[in-house]
Amino acid sequence: MASDDRRFLMGTLDVLLLKTLSWGPMHGFGIALWLERTAGDALRIEDGSLYPALHRLERKGWVTATWGLTENNRRAKYYELTAAGRKRLAQESSEWARFAEAVRRVLESTRPPVAAEAGS
Hints:
Helix content is 59%, strand content 13%. The protein is α+β, with helices and mostly antiparallel strands.
């Protein structure tokens, strides 16, 4: 992932993790894999970003974590969305929808800025 991609991802990682966990409890590797597959490999979440973000969400009370066994009988920490996390996901999703729509309007605009229209 390019450094510009990493900078953009840092601002979106929380909401992406909350959305991923809205499907049910998952361990870190499963979270990263689901995000990569769902995003068409456009997002690659490194462990150095993933686990600190999950711990931050846990401290905020948006996720809980418990130890369990993976499909391969390996011990792993499973993260699960809390009620507060579901509420936060709804808020963030709404904000992101508004933001994405605003960016789409700007990128698809065929009208020049007013100053350019006035011949400035």
